[in-house]
Design a protein that fits this description.
single chain, 7 helices, alpha/beta
Length: 184
């Protein structure tokens, strides 16, 4: 990340910021960062049942909500994904919420079949299941890594299990209009 994400993350108690090596050819940036983080965790604690939680920097999640998502994953396994609650505070932010509704419909939420996609802002899996599908290495060049990962998990019959977040799991898009995205 070239913005202030790392500096902001360092201000939180218990957070360790891991610097990713230079982006290798053939990798998308987010996928490389997630892969690097998992490899760092793997070196520290190789428990295959360890839960991995990938959160986008613009997601705001209360501790109790994070525990609920981890508990949900513990119950179903595979890949759990949450589309954060879309926090709209200004009139120009409201139309962007429609994209989230379309995304939820597009992955097949609420249907009788296993959803076809996942939501990248919040993903939870175990290290074991992550390794079984090849992790971010298997989708290294994909810009829509959430959809690609969901496809891999679905192929193994392990999700994705997708949910809509409540205000305890939220994000905000375009708070300053259609320019650089920041969360204020």
């Amino acid at each position: 990340s070239r913005d202030d994400t790392a500096a902001i993350a360092r201000t939180f108690e218990g957070v360790e910021v891991v610097a990713a090596p230079d982006l290798p050819a053939g990798w998308a940036g987010k996928n490389w960062a997630c892969h690097t983080g998992v490899e760092h965790v793997r070196a520290a604690a190789a428990d295959p049942n360890l839960q991995l939680c990938f959160l986008d920097a613009d997601v705001r999640i209360d501790r109790s909500a994070l525990q609920r998502v981890l508990d949900q994953h513990a119950g179903v396994g595979g890949l759990v994904s949450v589309q954060p609650w879309h926090d709209t505070r200004r009139w120009w932010e409201q139309p962007s919420a429609m994209f989230n509704l379309v995304a939820a419909m597009g992955v097949g939420m609420g249907g009788r079949k296993t959803p076809t996609g996942a939501f990248g802002p919040v993903l939870v899996t175990s290290l074991r299941d992550y390794d079984r599908v090849g992790g971010h290495r298997a989708v290294r060049a994909e810009v829509a890594e959430d959809l690609a990962l969901a496809h891999l998990y679905r192929g193994r019959g392990s999700g994705p299990f997708v949910y809509i977040g409540d205000p305890d799991i939220r994000f905000r898009m375009y708070p300053d209009g259609l320019g650089p995205v920041s969360y204020t």
